[in-house]
UniProtKB/TrEMBL annotation:
Coiled coil: none annotated. The lineage of its organism: Eukaryota, Viridiplantae, Streptophyta, Embryophyta, Tracheophyta. It comes from the Eukaryota. The chain crosses the membrane at residues 16-40. This is Nucleotide-diphospho-sugar transferase domain-containing protein.
Amino acid sequence: MGWKNPFKEVTNSKPLFLTVYGTVLIGILFSAIYVFSAVYTPDSAFSWSLSQHVAPSSPNQTLTSPLRVGGGLMAPISQPHAGKLKPIWEKPPPGSKMPPLETFRLTKELVQERVKDNVIVATFGNYAFMDFILTWVKHLTDLGVENLLVGAMDTKLLEALYWKGVPVFDMGSHMSTIDVGWGSPTFHKMGREKVILIDSMLPFGYELLMCDTDMVWLKNPLPYLARYPEADVLTSTDQVTPTVSDDRLDIWQQVGAAYNIGIFHWRPSDSAKKLAKEWKDLLLADDKIWDQNGFNDLVHRQLGPSVDEESGLVYAYDGSLKLGLLPASIFCSGHTYFVQAMYQQLRLEPYAVHTTFQYAGTEGKRHRLREAMVFYDPPEYYDSPGGFLTFKPSIPKNLLLDGEHNLDTHFTLVNYQMKQIRSALAIASILNRTLVMPPLWCRLDRLWFPHPGVLVGSMTRQPFICPLDHVFEVHTMLKALPEEEFGPGIDIREYSLFDNPLMPAQVKESWLDVQLCQQGSESCQSNSTNAKVLRFPRGSNEETFKTFFSPLKDVKVIQFSSMQDVFVGFTDKTREEKFRNRVKRYVGIWCCVDKHTPGHIYYDMYWDEKPDWKPLPPQTPEDDHPHW
């Protein structure tokens, strides 16, 4: 019915009906105006970027903890809003000032501004993990998840995130801005801050998906978590053997590995809040307890029976907490993702990858994510000033596939590749180019303890492309070593660099293929100055490389058809000695053989100079050192 007919009827009616109709219509009009203004006013409290002019929270909203929670400056809001969240990456206006630090204190109101469907996704860290945090946020926003918050453990990170338009709160930790290192006292302090944070946020009444910064989201996890509304806690694990072949929760009776607290989802139930408080009290009472061990001890206090026959949940902790174990095939650890590629073999879509099970600290985590093309680097990372050097690795089929997978065949395969990489590092050093590492093939897995080559029951295929940190000390390769002792630095990139969608087209278009030829042959004399292909003699030394390639400094990418016998040595023997001193430190260990202490075996960058070299663990304590 249109508006015209009711008005016509009213004018022909009695005065009483005219009065009633008029009153109703005026009420509707004013209600519409009120609702419109409430939703669209620019001063609405629906912004996460807090204003210093709004009224403070009521005193009973204040919390007390080492996190400096409480006392925010937002006006109380009774219910989570159903409107659209303020877009992430929307930077503050140019010329605006940084709000006072207390503006960013953790309060229910601040969290409420980012909540959607009663869920908040959170991580935390210090400035050393800025690039990890931005990667974490970028993946979530690309997936359409914007109900997130980042806890800043130092003011440098807080300010940097604020100016980038990332929702951030102050954890009041006053932590150093540098990388603290796994297992250090400061690392354990970070773990305690996480527990305090969970204990502080659960009373707000929202579901909390808490994540470490060294993981990335590959698929929106919230619909999956919503499949288990009865769960008080859903946690990832370090399980390396599958218990299910689909996307159900892992079977709790078959999970023998630790529950990993790098990814876990909490609901604000009484049991979950009780667990969080006891966990916090346990850690604050004894600074020697690792946060993850404390969590595992508590939830294993009672484990079983199953909640029902279908969900996969189990009663844990105090007998009333309902716990679910996220499947390791799709909520991946560093082993199930980078080594086993379990999700690929089971034809599943992974939700997340957490950079556990790796051997080169923070640099190793970053490099693994780069190899998987899930790390976000700035544009200059993909356009190295001196250009890139790459090569096509050559591996005979018998080294990959023939014979048993054992120590001898593993080291023969790795050493064959290592020799080529050594030549490529030397050429990259001479030409001042960044070396794009090749994919590295391994026959055996690397762990911290004795094993038969691969973990029994795992889905590790042999051979497999292993992460660079299985063989190379990535953190040492990327470290600034003194040039007077180790010669010029050699920058590296991951093997997948040119497949990354972030690689600029203009870099790949400036490409020169180098075909190796026999010195003195006719084919080595027929180069064209404008060709995309250059013929270059095998067995060349430092001076030959400089002569051929110095005029080609503007070429972005130089790719060699092979590294076999291409480089015979440095002309400058002092430089060669420094180079050797450097690259000897680039290789690590394989671990570990059984029934021998120590069980690790050192890789040797110059293994081919020792005719009697064999892959053996140190035979005496005096032998237990790298080959440098």
